[in-house]
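task queued by scheduler; priority normal; single chain, no ligands, no partner chains; default sampling; output format set to structure tokens
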Amino acid sequence: MKTTQAQRRATDTYRKKNPEKIRYQNTLGSARSFINPKTEKMKNNIKVATEDGHFNYLDDLKSLRELIDNRIKELEVNE
């Protein structure tokens, strides 16, 4: 289905009025894509980045999990 001019204008207007929400959504999407790569392009990017041994995908995931767990604890304490 083709996007109409009105839909594109509405999207642009929303993005201009809500830049924080857009940044939040983009950041969340990036995190999810790193954790659970669904496209072949993203899977290939991870493969290429880790082939030389400079990055370790499993270690990076574990590090992210630790950061997330710590952040959850912080937020739960401050509720």
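post-processing summary
- The helical segments are 5-17, 19-35, 40-51, 57-77.
- The CA atoms of residues 8 and 14 lie 10 Å apart.
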